[in-house]
Amino acid sequence: MNKIFILFFLLLIIACQTVTYIPPYTSVSTIDLTKYSREGFLITPYKYDADYESVGYIFVETMPEANLVTLEKTEQAGHAENAKTEWQVDKMSIDKIIDSIHQKALQMGANAIIDFKIEQTTKNYSVGRMSPLTIQGFTISGFAIKRLGAFK
Question: What is the pLDDT of residue 138?
């Protein structure tokens, strides 16, 4: 039993790499909502204090498409063909996702979305004998309202 533990421990040490440096990192992201404001449509993470009619809650979850792509094939005499593959995951446009929640709110008769939230979503997929695939998408939600008064 001790030999197995020691062997496992040695393999663990060999397999792990020691991190000795983490470079600085700065990321700046923006979401431009001005095109909706120009239409008189309000999107805000805050409550709306003026008069309004409740329209409904909207929840959008979006995940990108992923395709298993063959990078190179090798043939060995008398053996099955081996192929090196990798998953290619499409890029997602946050603007298109916001457009979808905006369009749904308009269809429902709303002219505003309050309590607007964007969260990153992670899904894990079991893909046979390959390592599990993790894909990141987005969840967007908000409460659709119809502002009353000057915004009729």
Answer: 92
Q: CA of 48: how far to CAs of 4, 9, 14, 59, 108, in Å?
A: 64, 58, 57, 19, 18
Identify the structural domains of the chain with CATH numbers, from first to last: 33-147 (3.30.110)
pLDDT for 55-69, tens place per residue? 999 999 999 998 888
> In which band, very low, low, confident or very high, does the pLDDT at 51 lie, cut at 50, 70 and 90?
very high
pTM value is: 0.69
Convert 46-79 to b/e letters by CB count within 10 Å (16 or more is b): eeeeeebeebeebeeebbeeeeeeeeeeeeeeee
Contact between 123 and 63 under an 8 Å Cβ cutoff? The reply is yes
